[in-house]
Amino acid sequence: MNPPAEEADALTRAVEATLFASEEPLTIAALSAHLGDADAAEIRAAVNDLETFYAGRGVALVRRGAAWHFQTAPDLAHLLRREREQVRRLSRAATEVLAIVAYHEPVSRAEIESIRGVQTAKGTLDVLMEAGWIRAAGRRDVPGRPVIYATTQEFLAHFGLASRRDLPGIDELRSAGLLDPVDDAYDALSGPNESDGAAGPD
């Protein structure tokens, strides 16, 4: 049974206010918890109504992964730019590592190095973590239990992606064989032939 129109309108306004006041994107579950465990289906309906209402306006309600937030309409962003210290541009190594994590996540440092063909300085990963674009996502269940890395909501928001499915060219890269699972690469590094002389990366 659908809620009365007055209740639905009140819930939509509450969702709108919560998203507007939040400093970070919120999931349907987070919105439900914040609004006293409101019904998730009704929260989702309210979010959909707001997304439609704000389409074409000065601000838009957009999805980032499984979360939602308000942002300035892309065609008006230039009006709100403020003078600020320019963020240091990523080095080529950091750009390569970020791309590998985005397309292969979750991925370990050894797997990143196998794909790049060169060692990766810990500082490169630190730069990306400080930027908020990658995070430690646990440990691989193999000998040594290496840390594995994944992208973040901040990564999606910064590059204007709703999800990793929106990464450019992923289908073309996969069809060209450039996005094979990293498991094979890791098996080559940690398999039974570790005694044939090559020392693994630090």
Could you characterize the architecture of this molecule?
The chain is of the alpha+beta class and 202 residues long. It has 2 domains: 5-75, Orthogonal Bundle (Arc Repressor Mutant, subunit A); 92-190, Winged helix-like DNA-binding domain superfamily/Winged helix DNA-binding domain (Arc Repressor Mutant, subunit A, Orthogonal Bundle), CATH 1.10.10.10. It has helices at 5-21, 28-34, 40-54, 92-104, 109-116, 122-130, 153-158, 170-175, 183-190, and strands at 26-27, 59-64, 67-72, 107-108, 134-139, 147-151. A 3-stranded antiparallel beta sheet has the order 1-3-2. A 3-stranded antiparallel beta sheet has the order 4-6-5. A hairpin with a 7-residue loop joins strand 5 and strand 6. Helix 1 packs across helix 3 (40-54), helix 2 (28-34) packs across helix 3 and helix 4 (92-104) crosses helix 6. The longest helix has 17 residues, at 5-21. It is elongated and about 55 Å long. It starts with a helix and ends in a 12-residue tail after the last helix. 20% of the residues are buried. Mean pLDDT is 77; it is low at 82-87 and 193-202.
Q: What is the gist of this entry?
A:
Helix content is 44%, strand content 13%.
What are its keywords?
alpha+beta; Arc Repressor Mutant, subunit A; 3-stranded antiparallel β-sheet; 9 helices; 6 strands; 13% strand; disordered C terminus
